[in-house]
Design a protein that fits this description.
By secondary structure, the protein is of the alpha+beta class. It is about 20% helix and about 45% strand. The chain has helices at about 1-10, 15-40; strands at about 45-50, 65, 70-80, 85-95, 100-105, 110-120, 120-125, 125-130, 140-150, 155-165, 170. Keywords: Membrane, Transmembrane, Transmembrane helix.
């Protein structure tokens, strides 16, 4: 009979068993999220977004967005005096082998895409493209330029915010 008393003492309560089970499930879910974030496990069509430096105005100078531990993307936006209604975009990708780069221009006040285009590769890790800046309803126009870097294993994106003036219902980059 002394053995039956020891068995009851070593037995865990049902509440403790439930708490252990819940803890193990939470650890497994957390490991899945960490694997998806750090290793890019999951859908190759999903875009992981990274913000640029909020104090950098891409319409004034080249800005850099860190794409996590994968690399960096630097972007410059320029217009010429003869064609102020089209923005020339140049992007440079660091530490990534990009198969293609897409850009999307959207209005920040409406969060809808106005224009999108695939950038042309002009050299190793260098891409260029043109986007129209001709839709204008209020001054200043607030834009968000989203850049998506497509690699064989994952899609990474960064965004850059900038403003343009509005003259005669046409957006004019400074």
């Amino acid at each position: 009979m002394p053995d039956s008393g020891r068995r009851e003492d070593n037995r865990r309560s049902p509440t403790l068993n439930a708490l252990i089970l819940v803890t193990l499930v939470m650890i497994m879910v957390s490991m899945g999220y960490l694997a998806n974030y750090y290793l890019g496990v999951g859908s190759s069509h999903q875009i992981t977004w990274y913000p640029a430096n909020p104090f950098c105005q891409v319409s004034e100078r080249r800005c850099v967005a860190s794409l996590g531990h994968h690399g960096d993307i630097s972007l410059a936006l320029a217009t010429t005096r003869t064609d102020q209604h089209r923005a020339h975009i140049s992007a440079q990708i660091e530490q990534l082998d990009a198969s293609r780069v897409d850009v999307m221009l959207e209005r920040r006040d409406q969060a809808r895409t106005v224009e999108s285009t695939r950038m042309e590769q002009v050299g190793p890790h260098r891409f260029t493209g043109l986007l129209p800046l001709d839709q204008c309803s209020a001054s200043p126009m607030r834009w968000r330029l989203k850049v998506v870097v497509h690699t064989p294993h994952r899609n990474l994106g960064g965004w850059f915010d900038f403003d343009t003036a509005c003259e005669d219902n046409q957006a004019v980059s400074s």
